[in-house]
Give the backbone structure.
Amino acid sequence: MRLTDLHRTTSFRLAMLFLLLFGAATLLLCGFVYWQTKDYLSDRVNESLAMEQARFDRLEASELRELLTAHVAMDPQIERPFTLFGPAGQPIAGSLLGPPALEVLSLPQDQPFTFTRPQDHRTVHFRGLIHRLPDGQYLLVAQDMTGVRAFNNLLLQSCLWGGLATVLLGLTGAVVAGADAVRRIDGVTNAIQRIVRGDLTGRLPTLGGSGDLDRLAQEVNFMLAEIERLMLEVKGVCDNVAHDLRTPLTRLLAGLERTRRRGGSAEDYAAAVDEAIQEIHSLLKTFAAMLRIAEAESGARRAGFTNLDLSQITSDVVEFYEPMAEQMGVTLLQACDSAVVMHGDPNLLFEAVGNLVDNALKFTPPGGQVGVRSFADDDSQGIEVTDTGPGIPLHHREDVLRRFYRTEDSRHTPGSGLGLALVAGVAGLHEMAVHISDADPGCRIALIGARRQRG
């Protein structure tokens, strides 16, 4: 992990953005609380001084001096100094603590003010209120602001430390989030590099959660699995084409060389040409089937989709293959629900169901039965073909859907091994699944799709 990459990650940038927004909001909140608290305490002190001033203002001169003398005895720490000044500003009674005479005469009356005095080797701040009495004297009431100032400083320090803790926690969270993003991106990058170098089995790392990166990685992994499957299928198709087409081409070449070497009559040459034409037609049918499978799997035929009735498809298939079934001594039955409507390509579905019926007829012994049924229930709909033949072994049921794959029992049966591959391609194009199961006896192959309610 490179720390220089942290600032490039979206997680780190988002964390920093939220840190700035939350920090600004916290700063405004702390500033608002600090100033409101400071003003509130200052206002309470001012109200207290005004009440004390009003209480002294109603007393006679002798009573005022007695009360001031008693107050000095009760307030040795001079936390609430009360002082009486003469008309010239000289202190007369009360606490001998207050502004100098010149300041007393120049201070605004009945307006709170702040002054400082040294006390015990420190400077003490006071909040005072001075009032001129009717006899020309001045009365000062004050209060020590040490406790208020200490509370304000504590509140300010708490806000500052809280802001610093917020910044540190935010930066830590941003670094953790950015480092995690860098680590995951490095894992994704390394996986992609391995895939690019040819390791198609590689997958993007996931944490197994439901986060955005996990969801994206899961979708990409699904795409990679499909690409791997297609690449293996292409490789298998190439191998199968080379293997399965080599036999008819060898047979065609051998027949032509044999005819040329023997140098027979015109009828012999004509027979050889007919055999060659038959082999070439078989090859062309194989390539045509491969092209139809590729066309179905690519989704190119979706443009021809229309609303169709599956029961009509089954009727057409049964009508088409009924002569063949009679010739082979097999009973071809049809069973359909009332109306099974879906959206699809009728020609492709006819060909897919026809391939299923053709395979069923090939492997059903004389006297057996082949059934074709369209069905629909609350959740699904489709077509199934059943027969009374030998069936398909469980371990071959996925393989028979691949191109050119043929079981050992079907090697000597005419065909190219593309019929069920075409069925799988058409089913995938119509978002249907191919389900192979036992019919007891025989085989049941069903094309099943989700039923869509028509609005």
In short: The chain has a mean pLDDT of 80. The first helix runs from residue 10 to 57.
